[in-house]
Amino acid sequence: NLKGVYIWEGRNCFISEAHTYDDLEKVIGAVKWACNELRPFYEKKSVSDKKKIPCSREQQEIVTYEQITSGSGMNEVCLVKVKGELSEEKLANAFEKVCQRHEILSYHLSEDMAYLEKIDNPDFKIKIEKDRNGDLKKRFTEIAAMPFDLRHDTLMKIYVGKEKEEISYVFLKAHHILVDGWSISIILQELIEVYNALYCGEN
């Protein structure tokens, strides 16, 4: 926007015959400028030595919304159907590795709700859900609707349920104060890659 190119976040942008070559050069120049400006923010920065991180303005707004609604509107969820054998042991190992890689997943809110505070022993263990009357998906819907305890919970959780002998479900649930819909899909993709590597005996 600072360079005169308006982008509506989360929407597609199109180039048409109405645009001139000068327009294209302007768009290319604006994208290059934006990439160079953002480059420092994408360098790997560890937060492992920080017990507390001040909440951003956006995170404070999420906390306020959560307090007003007392609901689960800020939960990010993802459900995957798995056909064939599923090793819960290797999945648990993979999930722990992915969560350790993304250090922010080891944080929750401080008591005063002004900071993200590192959890000494985050609970990244798999929660096993039983098929109740053949309605496992309904159970996951119920879990998705349950609000987190932002000051005491680990804000990234994984659930596994087996519907039939060869059909399982993997359910991820995280709070929006740590992840969004885009980043939880990245976490899922990494989980699949690490699980497949462990399953095949790779490091």
Tell me briefly what this model is.
The chain has helices spanning 21-38, 57-69, 88-101, 136-145, 181-199, and strands at 52-54, 75-83, 107-109, 115-118, 127-129, 156-164, 167-175. With 203 residues, the chain is α+β, with helices and mostly antiparallel strands.
Describe this structure in words.
There is one protein chain. The protein is an alpha+beta fold. The chain has helices at 21-38, 57-69, 88-101, 136-145, 181-199; strands at 52-54, 75-83, 107-109, 115-118, 127-129, 156-164, 167-175. A 4-stranded mixed sheet has the order 2-7-6-5, with helices on both faces. The protein has a 3-stranded antiparallel sheet with strand order 1-4-3, with no helix packed on it. The mean pLDDT is 86.
From the structure above, extract its key features.
5 helices, three-stranded antiparallel β-sheet, alpha+beta, 36% helix, 203 residues
User: What are the low-pLDDT stretches, counting only 5+ consecutive residues below 50?
Assistant: none
How helix-rich are the residues, as a percent range? 25-40%
SSE pattern? HEHEHEEEHEEH
Total number of helices:
5
The rough form would be described as: globular
Biggest β-sheet, characterized?
A: 4 strands, mixed
Number of strands: 7
- CA-to-CA gap between the ends? 44 Å
Mean pLDDT: 86
Q: Spatial order of the strands in the main sheet? A: 2-7-6-5
Strand content: 15-25%
Structural class: alpha+beta
Our Rg estimate from Cα atoms comes to 21 Å
